[in-house]
Amino acid sequence: MSAHAILGSGSYAPTRIVTNDELSQRVETSDEWIFTRTGIRERRIAGPDESTSQMASAAARAALADAKLSPADIDLLIVATMTPDMPMPAAACLVQTELGLSADTACFDLNAACTGFVYALDTAWAMLASGRYRTALVIGAEKVSSVIDWSDRTTCVLFGDGAGAVVLGSAVEGSRARLIGSKLGSIPATSSALMTPGGGSAPASPDAPKCITMKGKEVFKLAVRAMDDVAREILVAHNIAPSEVACIIPHQANRRIIEAIAQYLELPLERFFINLDRFGNTSAASIPLALDEARRAGRIKSGDVVLLVAFGAGLTYGATLVRF
Ligand code: ACO
User: Fold this and answer.
1) 24 Cα to the center of ligand 1, angstroms
2) Distances in Å between the alpha carbon of 131 and those of 4, 22, 73, 128, 193?
């Protein structure tokens, strides 16, 4: 089987910054409560005219430029999102038009909530490995602010908007950069812990809230267990010791969740890339946004093994091991 690698990355964040202090003028909360419980200081919120597909397109353009490729090189486009512009067509089709991708590009959205990007990466990798596709754009993009109840202090302080993208293609000859492994899963019977109950086809849906509802403590415990388990599993499966991982890009939900995982894996917290203080939880955008920042900040060097690890509503979880 031919090897595939991440050839470039890009990201986009809306310009509007909403600080904890600003939120505390809208709901009964404080910077101190939010920061000590989550590590979040501020988040980016998309403007009223800004959509998920627009943010996705901006991130994708940056990823193509980084990979030194053009839209004509892409024949597969997956957008991981739980907040597409509309139920149909898929956000991917809107991005296709925006970027000018050709008509023989396979375009679809994938929803695995906050694990969406890791799921999309695995899906794209499998499609490339089949030999039927050549080069893929894999994007995580979310306008989470559109599914938030801004009067609910237990959820509105946690989330933000943004997008991140990577270009996936054949590994460059002579380079060690490649995708090493991937593991996906979903814990049954945990969906009520984190959901958007309304807006879908369920019988109770018309009256149910169209915003995120969450049992915070339950999600916290499930997230730590799922991310710790899947990180261990993938490292063992590929015979890589935790100490050999140069950088871990975890889903950016809560600093305390990341600290717990660092402790369980017996790794220094400095090995984890954290930007949730500035972006909050951007769901499927969180990992590609952090990955792109980490690369541009020089935190990931050629030859480094990087672990992406995520959890999200479902409760889905997943991990990817990549060498850059
Ligand atoms: N400001 C002030 N007080 C608040 C706030 C707030 N923003 N939110 C809740 N409180 C109050 C609660 O009402 C509660 O008050 P009470 O004791 O009088 O009932 C008190 O603070 C403590 O609330 P807890 O829920 O016990 O706080 P906890 O320490 O568990 O922290 C948190 C809550 C931050 C949500 C935490 O449970 C958490 O991070 N859970 C995981 C959430 C997560 O990662 N979600 C990601 C899902 S994203 C995805 O996959 C789509």
Assistant:
1) 15
2) 11, 50, 15, 5, 39
